[in-house]
């Protein structure tokens, strides 16, 4: 039943700051399923992932690396919109899916105020001023509804797996070692040439000094 209510959500992961990629169809269906569980396990190519739909984070279970995720409302014309709030570091964070649905419904109905609960904390969101207020602390944060321009999962360049990353690092070390080895003779020759030049200069200086110390004919 929850799945049917939220089936119009398109999930995305953040490749780099403010650059988003849509999950593939199968992963998106998994993320829109069984909202009684907050964490969903995904297998994408070689990566074992888990997505926390409450904190809106994706974690690689092998490397521990984390990314932000967000869910967008997909409209009939195919356009997608995300609802986000701004944290203390001025980074935009996605609301969890149930709140995204509430906010979009209120926006469509031209409601100005929405009361939501996130992680057992109550908030009042003013859609006129686009501000969120914590009902307990009165701390306010900015809110925005932003159009998604995320890349398709089919055209996005996947992040290297842990195995590929280690292989690439090893290859780079080998290449650097080979380059250093190939340059070593040239460096040795250059050092030897510099040493010979310094020796010649010293000999010439000694000759000049000897000439200056010779008795002059008067």
pLDDT under 50 segments (min length 5)?
Answer: 1-6, 160-165, 207-218
Order of helices and strands: HEEHEEEEEEHEEEEH
Q: Distance N terminus to C terminus?
A: 119 Å
* SSE-based structural type: alpha+beta
How many discrete structural domains? 2
List the SSEs and their pairings:
Layout: H1 2-5, E1 9-16, E2 19-22, H2 25-31, E3 39-44, E4 47-52, E5 57-60, E6 66-74, E7 80-86, E8 92-94, H3 97-108, E9 113-118, E10 121-126, E11 131-134, E12 140-147, H4 162-213
Antiparallel strand pairs: 1-2, 1-6, 3-4, 4-5, 5-6, 6-7, 7-8, 7-12, 9-10, 10-11, 11-12
Task: Describe the protein.
Helices cover 34% and strands 33% of the residues. It is an alpha+beta fold. It has two domains: 2-147, Signal recognition particle alu RNA binding heterodimer, srp9/1; 161-211. The longest helix has 52 residues, at 162-213. The termini are far apart.
